[in-house]
Amino acid sequence: MSPKTLYDKIWDAHVAHEAEDGTCLLYIDRHLVHEVTSPQAFEGLRMSGRKVRAPEKTIAVPDHNVPTTLDRDDATTMTEDSRIQVEALDKNARDFGVHYYPVNDVRQGIVHIVGPEQGWTLPGMTVVCGDSHTATHGAFGALAHGIGTSEVEHVLATQTLIQKKSKNMKVEITGKLAPGVTAKDITLAVIGKTGTAGGTGYVIEYCGEAIRGLSMEGRMTVCNMAIEGGARAGLIAPDETTFEYCKGRPHAPKGAQWEAAMEWWKTLYSDDDAHWDKVLTIKGEDIAPVVTWGTSPEDVLPITAKVPAAADFTGGKVGAAQRSLDYMGLTPGTPLNEVAIDTVFIGSCTNGRIEDLRAAAAILKGKKVKDGLRAMVVPGSGLVRAQAEEEGLADIFKDAGFEWRLAGCSMCLAMNPDQLAPGERCASTSNRNFEGRQGFKGRTHLMSPAMAAAAAITGKLTDVREMM
Amino acid sequence: MDKFDKLTGVAAPMPLVNIDTDMIIPKQFLKTIQRSGLGANLFDEMRYDREGNEVPDFVLNQPAYREAEILVAGENFGCGSSREHAPWAIKDFGIRCVIAPSFADIFYNNCFKNGILPIALPQEAVDVLMKDAEKGSNARMSVDLEAQTVTTSDGEVFTFELDSFKKHCLMEGLDDIGLTMAKEASIDSYEAQAAQARPWV
């Protein structure tokens, strides 16, 4: 048999139909659904009298719109249109009989945190969701990617997607990470190298010693931002760390089923002589704690660097860089660690898991948030929140001056009340620094939770290594 | 879905790389539960000031381009979120074709589900088309899906590549779900076989 990549193996196991031109029907094992990209899809089903083909493989949770303030049970904390979307999901989940975690369920949270946490996401699966950060689930060695609403409707109706196979790209992070360098720095550093379109047309498999050394939480952070590199999906081959994470989760297999699953899961790796269409290798030791300076996730620099000038770039990027500098209100040549911030946001599907909160709390312990700064921590799920409270992390955040919120997408995309004001500058653990992403004219610098915590203390972008 | 075959119209130039879906349709407009009506808010934060007044410089506010049916843009158009609200807004505004050196994957796929033709052409070709678009409303560009060509107002012709299945669906205005439903037997047998092989799923 010809050697295969991990992507090849998962793909081959899920082709339900292949046409002569190579267009396939890819069978979908898990369909995650949230309130923003699904209402039109459910409405489409109703209009055409179609049912959800596999409600038992469909999992819904509201996350984008929901307020994260403690008073959110009060319906007036949501705007009318947000409330309508959440209520539509309530109704659709009930009418079509899919698994559902409503706002007041302790298991509610960001869909990409809930799926793995509940054991819905398992190695070798195909996972889709009407959300680009579905790439997160690739951390389990599952083929996971975002889809549009028409495709959401297609999956609801047929449990398949019309797909053509992507190409294989290997991103290897060799060696070990230096102290203060995290999964977020890896994933940003990769995008800094490839650019936001470097992965377009590819499924990326992340591998190498530095990736192997990451926890599941860290691996999810890496895969989460595969989409920011343009890739259809990011993958990491499952190993003992993966199996250990999955074991005992509510929807993970048990007993003999677990053994049978393990037998297959252990075959899920790229063969030694598999073909790669593109390869990128980065030395783990060369990765520094990074921040973004511009309005594209590819605008990545080590915290020790200076704000670049538009003239440092070529082609269409010259104009884009100037536009970014103007938007961000930055002067070329300014050391990044002198850029003062107004707000700190710790959370999102990129960095809202327990390990992220631990990393931030380790920096914040016994310290205070800089006077006048707004700082919030938004756990990725109700269960992450509960665990952080049990571990004493919540107290560290609160003592430092952080707001301790309920679970949701919050300020990552600001569809809810958590937003930046015009000109407000934020150190954020989220995934996109686009213009207006966190609020109209808001300015976003992406970084790791530890770096965001360090910035909260000093009130400016800060090299976390100086605090360790 | 609306069919697409030929289109001749005004092309609006947006020589900016990495135009993301947050630019195309900001999140506050994702709260709709309908597909229609988003055209008024296409490129909202570039098109209007905080008070809702038009920004005169913005291309789609200029008299020449208010009726644009084609958009010419920089590389990696449509990067960012999976929101289909982006193509819905483009379509609702009246744009049926976007030309750029490259597109983000999910946005590209979403276009075809909505009767929009995304055309990827080499940078040099897009540069020529951008110049043509900058001539304003007297310069009408033509797109022929069957022939897979774009023709400038001066008659210069560029040929583009396109997946044959996507082309077929767009030309015929086919409903994907209907097409897949016709292959239901394959899905049934796959499902039965997968349930044996991987019962834990």
TrEMBL record, chain A:
GO terms for molecular function: 3-isopropylmalate dehydratase activity. It is an enzyme of class 4 (lyase). It holds the Pfam family Aconitase. [4Fe-4S] cluster binds at residues 349, 409, 412. Residues 8-459 form the Aconitase/3-isopropylmalate dehydratase large subunit alpha/beta/alpha domain. It catalyses: (2R,3S)-3-isopropylmalate = (2S)-2-isopropylmalate. Its EC number is 4.2.1.33. Its cofactor is [4Fe-4S] cluster. Pathway: Amino-acid biosynthesis; L-leucine biosynthesis; L-leucine from 3-methyl-2-oxobutanoate: step 2/4. Signal peptide: none annotated. Keywords: 4Fe-4S, Amino-acid biosynthesis, Branched-chain amino acid biosynthesis, Iron, Iron-sulfur, Leucine biosynthesis, Lyase, Metal-binding. Binds 1 [4Fe-4S] cluster per subunit. Belongs to the aconitase/IPM isomerase family. LeuC type 1 subfamily. NCBIfam families: leuC, PRK05478.1, PRK12466.1. Catalyzes the isomerization between 2-isopropylmalate and 3-isopropylmalate, via the formation of 2-isopropylmaleate. This is 3-isopropylmalate dehydratase large subunit.
TrEMBL record, chain B:
The gene is leuD. The keyword Amino-acid biosynthesis applies. Heterodimer of LeuC and LeuD. The keyword ATP-binding does not apply. Residues 1-124 form the Aconitase A/isopropylmalate dehydratase small subunit swivel domain. This is 3-isopropylmalate dehydratase small subunit. Its EC number is 4.2.1.33. Catalyzes the isomerization between 2-isopropylmalate and 3-isopropylmalate, via the formation of 2-isopropylmaleate. Keywords: Amino-acid biosynthesis, Branched-chain amino acid biosynthesis, Leucine biosynthesis, Lyase. InterPro entries: 3-IsopropMal_deHydase_ssu (IPR004431), Aconitase/3IPM_dehydase_swvl (IPR015928), AconitaseA/IPMdHydase_ssu_swvl (IPR000573), IPMI_Swivel (IPR033940), LeuD (IPR050075).
